Amino acid sequence: MFRYWNGYVYVVIFMLLGVLLPLAALWVLGPLLRPNRPTAGKLTTYESGVEPIGDAHVRYNARYYLFALLFVIFDVETLFLYPWAASYHQMGRFALVEMLLFIFMLAIGLVYAWRKKVLEWT
Amino acid sequence: MQILWTPEMIAFFLISLAILACAVMLLSFQKVIYMALAIGGVFIGCAALYILLGAEFVGISQVLIYAGAITILLMFAIMLTNHEAVEPEARWTVRRVFSALGCLALAAVLWFVIRSVQWPQGDAATDINQGHPNAVAIGLMLFKTYTIPFELVSLLLIVALVGAVILARPPKEGE
Asked: Which family does the similarity line name (chain A) (predicted)?
């Protein structure tokens, strides 16, 4: 039991590293190394090289919500892949067929969304 | 009550502190987008709590579904709506008193329930994991014992997908 928890010490160490490294690079080392000569042009918000127009807090088109909804559904599918992959060696061929069926069903859904032109940006 | 200061206990207190801090931030922020970020923090804290309790699969699904998908869904919902209006400060002190009383009553009920519950003690004979790690045990159960319900889940997901497409699709020209 105790050895099992020791594994999470590494997780915590990596989490701390993941938080601290960018902070150290951007807040501590960066200002020491980079020159700082701001001009009005440099301080404007970057918007693909175009002069920024208006506020960033605009209302987006409602169709983008569909991407979020589709993402949630396929995220749930991904969740089922995890215990499947973990227990695959104890189950063999039948589990593969089951998962292929599962993915096939969701692929039908994806094709449906595609045919309904949900995935298009324009 | 004696508290044993094991590493688990310290981790539990740190995680609970993080969750409570995020929850308080969620309630006190004025801008909805910050609230969505705070609720993401709450979800991640809950995932850490699940992992601490030994339920890694629940923790992973919490990160994947709640911290990932649900928070993104909230963000999209916020981006799609107009929310420049700031809510006025709540002034009804009577309402505040009653909500405080309600919160205290709920806390008391939860406290008594937690104190009175008897958790069954597991041993090797009643170990439903049968020595497997959690994810493996869940996989074996899902793909061997509950095959049909698992395949029905895909049907449920496809129904959700079709419903989402039909509901959120912009109406065609002339419709």
From this structure: Belongs to the complex I subunit 3 family.
* Chain B residues close to A84, C-beta within 8 Å: 139, 142-143
Count of C-beta atoms within a 10 Å radius of residue A79? 17
Overall average pLDDT of the A109-115 stretch: 88
Flag whether pLDDT at B131 surpasses 50. yes
The conformation of residue A26, written as its DSSP 8-state character, comes to: I
pLDDT tens-digit series, residues A26-50: 888 888 888 888 888 888 888 787 8
CA atoms of A81 and A101, how far apart (whole Å): 13
Contact A98 B69 (CB under 8 A): no
Domains in chain A (CATH in brackets) are 2-115 (1.20.58.1610)
Tokens, residue B41: 């923090």
Q: For residue A100, what is the nearest residue in chain B, using CA coordinates?
A: B151
Residue B175 pLDDT grade (very low, low, confident, very high; cuts 50, 70, 90): very low
The DSSP code for B3 is -
Asked whether the beta carbons of residue A83 and residue B151 sit closer than 8 angstroms, the reply is: no
Where do the structural domains in chain B lie, given as residue ranges?
1-84, 130-175
Question: Which residue is closest to B132 within chain A, CA to CA?
Answer: A87
Cβ contact, residue pair B153, A112, below 8 Å: no
Residues on chain B touching A94 (C-beta within 8 angstroms): 143
Among B60, B48, B52, B61, which residue's Cα sits nearest to residue B6? B52
Alpha-helical segments (H) within A49-120: 64-86, 93-115
Residues B65, B47 contacting (CB under 8 angstroms) = no
ipTM (interface predicted TM): 0.74
> How far apart, in Å, do the first and last CA atoms of chain B sit?
68
Topology annotation, domain B1-84: Four Helix Bundle (Hemerythrin (Met), subunit A) (1.20.120)
